Amino acid sequence: MIKPFRTLMWTAVATLLAASMSYAGGINHRPDHTTLAAKYRPVLLERFLKYTTYDSQSDNDQDITPEQIETAQKLYEEIKALGYKVQLTPHYYIYVELPSNVPYPTPVLGFSSHYDTTPDVPGKNIHANVINKYDGKPIVLKNGHVIDFNSDPYLKQMIGKTVVTSDGTTMLSGDDKAGVSIMVTLLQTLKENPKLKHGKVQIVITPNEDVGRSADYIEETPYRPDIAFDFDGKVNGDVTVGNFNAEKVIYRVTGKNGHQSHAAENGYRNAWAPACELGAACAREEWLPNNSTGNQGYAELHHMNMVNGQMSQAELDFRLRSFRQSDIDAWKDYAQTKADAIAQKYDVKIEREVFKQYQNVAENVHPMARKVADNALRRAGVTPSFKEERAGTTASMLMLKLGKGAYTIFTGQQNAHNFTEWLSEEDMFKSYWVALNMLDEVASQREPDPIPAPSHKPGYIIPAAR
Q1: Which pLDDT score, from 0 to 100, does residue 263 have?
Q2: H or E element in which residue 109 lies
Q3: Rounded Cα–Cα distance for residues 141 and 275 (Å)
Q4: What DSSP line would sit under 199-250, residue for residue?
Q5: pLDDT at 89
Q6: CATH of the domain at 260
Q7: What is the mean pLDDT of residues 25-35?
Q8: pLDDT by residue (tens digit) across 247-266?
């Protein structure tokens, strides 16, 4: 008997579904990495402690520091020694690509982190302090620094667990040596366990994140993932799924030189009256940062400068932040209308320059990213906490350059950019476990083959379904 078309169609669908579920026992039955992850837990902590001894501070006034270069070279050699073909770019990005080992196409998975540390706090000669089975008492560091439940409520959850701090004379550098430790330990895991299934994986470790330049030379690498995650977050379970769009807008007002006493005759035009009027019009009280909470953005006149010491030249630096790019674009349209009118009113020239700083990753993220993150966290025994960040991230800087969003995953770092910075060893371990889970979560996202049309001879009519 010839089967009806509906039966044929569902038979084909079932065959394809079974094929897609054959890997790892099905969509809801990924490999259990509990034992494997536990094996590398001591390795991860040991690696982190080693990395804290690397001085890798970035600098606002240098393209890259000698300390960063030295750290990049050490990481490059370590990854190379694991057996990988690793790339160290001219601007000291570290890039590794792992070819897929599954026999079907999958999205490209990307991981990122950064090896530089902030210039805001001393970061040389770090002496990490490992506290096993934390007893809940205040942690007293040198120079009068104290970490306790008042300053760090999350510390209550660390009782009986391992906490790492500095000695109080420097930062700890968990931001983001925790993320780098996770990346390199993951590479070691994959090299020593080649049967772990994964699609193509791209990993990049960047410099200069803590001075806002993490993506400046990302084009030197082939890093172009479909589903991407940045490992540079905080509390266990936190996943940053959105952030501010950020732009800096410079308005330059140019008047005309001359003696003020004879301005009516010589055409003198002071730049500051029109500049102040433009500043007041474009940074209205209701738009200021102190009136912005939750998912509200803001427009701030950050500062004003006299250009080259000339009274006839004024510069206004506006900072714009919003979760919606459309809000920033609307402000720019409004501001330009005001600038044109004020320039005409005062007979001065007003020019504008726009600098995009970072973008909201949520505006162009892979549709499977949230599901991959949710599944990977839950399989590691972590309850996901998806949230939006009223700031920027490495992922948002990469978004600006690459046009694709990435979520930021917790790594256990706390109190970044501070003498009282500390790390939850358990959270860092869980983050590593999450990364391990993400490999097969993405590997399961195969592109299904098209359902073949039933073949039949010309003139033959397929019976209608009964």
Answers
A1: 67
A2: strand 109-114
A3: 49
A4: --EEEEEES-GGGT-TTTTGGGS----SEEEEEEE-STTEEEEEE-EEEEEE
A5: 98
A6: 3.30.70.360
A7: 73
A8: 999 999 999 877 777 667 77
Closest residue by Cα to residue 183 from 68, 40, 59, 371:
40
320 and 377 assigned to the same domain: no
CATH code of 383's domain: 3.40.630.10
CA distance 136 to 150: 12
| DSSP H or E run through 41 | helix 41-52
Rg (alpha carbons) of the chain, rounded to whole number? 27
Strands 422-424 and 163-165: antiparallel
Query: Which amino acid does the sequence have at 466?
Result: R
Residue 6: pLDDT band with limits 50, 70, 90:
very low
Alpha-carbon distance of 137 to 151, in angstroms, equals 13
Q: 199 or 306: which carries more pLDDT confidence?
A: 199
Question: 192 and 73 in one domain?
Answer: yes
Domain boundary residue, one of 330, 357, 384:
357
Question: Using 50, 70 and 90 to split pLDDT, how confident is the model at 154?
Answer: very high
The answer to whether 231 touches 115, Cβ cutoff 8 Å, is no
CB atoms within 10 A of CB 342: 21
Q: Are 185 and 47 in contact (CB under 8 A)?
A: yes
Give dist(CA 309, CA 383) in Å, integer: 56
Q: Look at residue 451 in the predicted model and tell me its pLDDT.
A: 56
The rounded mean pLDDT for the chain is 90
Q: What is the β-pairing status of strands 238-243 and 385-389?
A: parallel
Cα 49 to the center of its chain, rounded Å: 23
Q: Where are the beta strands (DSSP E) in 285-404?
A: 298-306, 313-322, 349-358, 385-389
Q: How far apart are CA 200 and CA 177, in angstroms?
A: 24
Torsion, Cα 324 208 191 229, to 10 degrees, reads -10
Q: In this predicted model, what pLDDT tens digit does every residue of 332-388 receive, in sequence order?
A: 999 999 999 999 999 999 999 999 999 999 999 999 999 999 999 999 999 999 999
Q: Count, in order, helices (H) and strands (E) of the chain.
A: 11, 18
Query: 14 in a domain, yes or no?
Result: no
